[in-house]
Sequence to fold (302 residues):
Amino acid sequence: MFTKTFAALIAAAVVLGAPTPGPAPTQTNVLQFALSLEYLESAFYSGALAQYDAQAFADAGFPSWVRGRFEQIAQHEQTHVSTLQNALGDQAPQACQYSFGRLTDAESPYTDPRSFVSLSFAIEGVGAAAYLGASKFIDDKDTLGVAASILSIEERQVAWVSSAVLKQQPWDGPFETPLSPSGAYSLASQFITSCPSSNPPLPVTPFPALSVSNASPWPGSTINLTFDNSNNADAAYAVWLNGLDAVFTPLDGNGQTTVPDGLHGTVYVGVASSEQTPMSDASMVTGLAIVQMPFDSTAVEA
Ligand SMILES: *[C@@H]1O[C@H](CO)[C@@H](O)[C@H](O)[C@H]1NC(C)=O
Fold:
C-alpha cells in the first residue's frame, strides 16, 4: 500500500552541484532547520484538510475521528511553528512554497485522503528522525527540553498514523532512527519549490536524489539504486539506517545491491563511499530514500 507514495517520495528531480560538507551546525542553525521542517508540515496538513472535508475522509473509508485527529495534528504543527519563531526572533526564516500535489508527471504524492495519510506517515517519521538526529547540536539544556517535547509529540503522531489509522506497526524496534540534517532534508526538500532568498542557509549539504526500484523490498532480494553520479563519487555501498544500526551492503557498478536481513519497518537507504559510522556528510554520496521492510502485522514475531 505504501509503494506508490514512497516511490513518489523518493523521485525528486533536483539537479545539484558537487556536495561540499560544511562545519557542524550551531544551535541557531538547528532551530532554523527545525522551523523549516515545521513550516513544511504545517503547510502539508492545513493544505490537505482544506482540500478534504469530513465527507471525503468518510468516502475514503476512515471513521470520523481520523480527520478530527488530523486537525489536532495540524494545530500542533502550527504551534511548533510559532514556538520556534519566538525562540529565533529576527533570526527566524520565513516559510517557503511547497508542492505536495504533483512532483512529476508520473506520480502524485497525494491525490486523495488515503494517499495523504500514507504521506503523513512518511513526513512525520522524517520530522521526528530529524529532531532526534539534530538534538546533539543543541547546547542549551532548556532549549533541548523544548525540542525533546516537540519530538515526543511528533513520535506519538507518527505512531498514531501508523497503527491506529494505517493498521501498521507503531514502531520499528527498540530504537528510533536518527537522521542527520542533510539526510532528513534530502527527503523533505523535494516538497519545497522555492524559498525567500532572505532566508538563512540551512546546515545541510545537498546530495543527488536517490530512487529505488522497490519501496517494499524483501530481505535477500536484489534492488536497484538510481542516482545522478556525474560527480563520479565513490558509490561503494548502500547504507541502510534502521534504529541505531547502519548496515552497509556493497553496491555494484550498475547500482545493484542485496537487501540485508534483520531490518524492520521504516528503513532509510542511501549511498555511501565508506563504511564509516556514524555517517557524516563526508561519506554520503546521495540523499536518502525510504523503504518499508516486512514487519509482521500480526505482531507474533518481531
Ligand atoms: C535493475 O538493473 C538491472 C541491470 O542494470 C536491469 O536489468 C533490471 O531490469 C533492473 N531492475 C529494475 C526492477 O529496475
Remarks:
- The two ends are 20 Å apart (CA to CA).
- The helical segments are 3-9, 27-51, 54-59, 64-88, 113-134, 141-165, 181-188.
- Confidence is low (pLDDT under 50) at residues 1-17, 102-107.
- The CA atoms of residues 266 and 292 lie 5 Å apart.
